[in-house]
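tool=predict chain=A
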Amino acid sequence: MTAWHLELAAQAYPQLRHSMALLAGDLSWITGQAHVDLIEQLALADCIDPSSGDVKKHASLNCDKGSCAFSVYRSAFWERARKRCDELRKDKNRDASLRLDALQGLMDDPRKMDFVAVGLMQPLGRIKGWNPSPAAFEIQDWQDLYLGPHLEYLLFNY
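tool=predict ok
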């Protein structure tokens, strides 16, 4: 997400921009988890070169979420957003209720939700420190590079 995306949202859809600020922490968590889900699917499909940590060129994903990285990320983003809604429904405080309404409002308009998902997508880079065995899958190095706190700050403060 760049300042340009946020400025575009602020000018064209002020309510969307307000929702993104309100949901900064939630969107950062959803995005991070969607990336983790994508990396796990890439690892399970043998799409990560174990020697370098790079995603293999011309690698093919074959999973129930699709056959390209973006479709897997997008599906995971929506699934994690639904999960966050479920968590917010259980929380009875006013802040959680406001965030639930905002997140549900985004999900009610797939175009806006997809704009947010695409805007928050980050490059994977090298995925080091992982074990190719699905039972021992680790992506700590990528999580250390994930710009979640910066992303949350940008969403909330810009």
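The chain has one domain: 3-157. The chain has a mean pLDDT of 80.
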